Amino acid sequence: MNLDQIAGVAHEPDGDPNGVVVLTHGAGGSRESQLLQQICDEWARRGWLAVRYNLPYRRRRPTGPPSGSAATDRAGVVEAITVCRGLTDGPLIAGGHSYGGRQTSMVVAAPEASPISVDVLTLFSYPVHPPGKPERPRTEHLPHITVPTVFTHGTSDPFGTPGEVRGAAALIAAPTEIVEITGARHDLRSRTLDVPALAVEAALRLLG
């Protein structure tokens, strides 16, 4: 499969895939993030094709924060989902870490603007607000999401407390599940919990 168009890397399962998972990175990261690699490995072990890809701003330059228009990055999300939808006949799960998850959630919240279908949304370290600025919530689009959604979130993440994440999840007009990673910060690293396994299991439960 050729994923050069979306700067994607595939983690392939043994045998025919059950479906496809399409994930992207946070603002300072790339498709090479350790978290994305571990999560894609876990999905492949469960029999799914998992693709981690770079957003358009990261394709333009290898490091640094998002540059240019977030709308361009959302167009990149639509492109990646469209490309990956054609790779299997099974369900499609999409999402990402922090900024990448937020942009994916905005795409899913506006289906009239982007004719794509997603079966489950999986968000890692969703940035409920900028650190230290709870008065600037990034949740206005969440009531327009109508697909089951998983939030995997560290209890020490400065982008949102567990209570704030629960409040954000409650805005979504579909089943949600919150996977709390005790003690983890924005990178979701944990010495005691298997973060990829917990996130994948929650997504599979919502998929039903």
Describe this structure in words.
The chain is of the alpha/beta class and 208 residues long. Helix content is 32%, strand content 18%. It has six helices and seven strands; from the N terminus they run E-E-H-E-H-H-E-H-E-E-H-E-H. Strands 1-3-2-4-5-6-7 form a seven-stranded mixed β-sheet, with helices on both faces. Helix 1 links the parallel strand 2 (20-24) and strand 3 (49-53). Helix 1 (34-45) packs across helix 6. The longest helix is centred in the middle third of the chain and has 16 residues, at 70-85. The mean pLDDT is 96.
How many distinct helices? Answer: 6
Q: Note the main sheet.
A: 7 strands, mixed
Q: Between the first and last Cα atoms, what is the distance in angstroms?
A: 28 Å
Radius of gyration: 15 Å
* Structural class based on helices, strands and sheet pairing: alpha/beta
Shape: globular
β-strand percent reads 15-25%
- Which sequence of SSEs, written as H and E, runs from N to C? EEHEHHEHEEHEH
* Uncertain stretches of 5 or more adjacent residues: none
Output the strand order for the largest sheet.
Answer: 1-3-2-4-5-6-7
Give the SSE map.
Layout: E1 8-11, E2 20-24, H1 34-45, E3 49-53, H2 56-60, H3 70-85, E4 92-97, H4 99-109, E5 120-124, E6 149-154, H5 162-170, E7 176-181, H6 195-207
Parallel strand pairs: 2-3, 2-4, 4-5, 5-6, 6-7
Antiparallel strand pairs: 1-3
Helix pairs in contact: 1-6, 3-4
